[in-house]
Write a structure and sequence with these properties.
By secondary structure, the protein is mainly alpha-helical. Helices cover 65% and strands 7% of the residues. Strands 1-2 form a two-stranded antiparallel sheet. Helix 1 packs across helix 4.
Length: 181
């Protein structure tokens, strides 16, 4: 889904070739551990084309080289892009799941995004409250098990708290975009 969001977002800014988008994605992914192959890019272009979200604009044929096809986004694709961005926020799993949507915030209603971020923060705070209530019981369990349980609880707490802190920064960023408009 995130690759398709990135493809649709790129095409919404102008027609281009799959290879150009691969280079663009590569630049953004240099900061992460994720790697995208050409096969993945071309596969997703084909999926989007079959769904009618993108269209072939021009195909250049030359000797000794594969055909080179330029694509553009359709109106159906623009609507799907917007819907996909909202769904990514609605189905939040982790901060990384938002990356493709973040580079396309100019294509959606930032007030709606702010609301969705606030909702995510509320849900994560409930998880923090739950974790705070859970305390490994001192029972017949050996000391190593108890240490492991406390370490796992601490890791879960710290991870969720870190996500909340980051989401609050994102919320501030999105709200400042709303005020500018």
């Amino acid at each position: 889904m995130s690759i398709q969001i990135f493809i649709l977002g790129s095409l919404s800014e102008g027609n281009c070739y799959p290879y150009d988008i691969k280079k663009k994605i590569g630049k953004h992914l240099d900061q992460t551990d994720a790697k995208i192959t050409e096969g993945t890019i071309y596969y997703n272009f084909e999926v989007l084309h079959k769904k009618g979200l993108i269209e072939k604009i021009e195909t250049i044929q030359s000797e000794n080289r594969p055909d080179k096809t330029m694509y553009g986004i359709t109106e159906k694709g623009r609507l799907a892009l917007e819907d996909s961005i909202y769904k990514v926020f609605q189905k939040f799993t982790n901060v990384q799941s938002l990356y493709a949507a973040l580079v396309n915030l100019d294509k959606v209603d930032n007030q709606k995004i702010a609301y969705l971020i606030e909702d995510i923060i509320v849900k994560l705070r409930k998880k923090i409250e739950y974790i705070e209530q859970q305390k490994p019981e001192q029972s017949d369990a050996n000391e190593d098990l108890m240490d492991a349980l406390w370490l796992m609880r601490d890791h879960a707490y710290q991870t969720i708290q870190s996500n909340i802190d980051w989401l609050q920064k994102l919320l501030h960023h999105v709200q400042s975009r709303v005020l500018k408009n």
